[in-house]
Write a structure and sequence with these properties.
By secondary structure, this protein is of the alpha+beta class. Helix content is 23%, strand content 31%. It starts with a helix and ends with a helix.
Length: 95
Amino acid sequence: MLALRQFLLTFHPDITEAWKWRLPFYLYRGKTFCYLWTDKKTKMPYVGIVEGGKIDHPMLIKGDRIRMKILPVDPNSDLPVGVLEEVLEAARTFY
């Protein structure tokens, strides 16, 4: 989670961190952009992408969410930096 946090904070200079709804949210130019959380069933961390419903990427999971999609991250593997960059760049186009 700390590596994900550091990655998000260094991804773009306009991304800031805030606590909303008891979650660490990351804002892009003051608007909610993504958040970090852990899946209750699998205990795996993920990055929730606020505008994920508008992004078509094979690694994003919609589940029963309407607006958001999540990007699961395996804590036992290296960070998928390339995938994170692709998804975050796609999400940035909606702001």
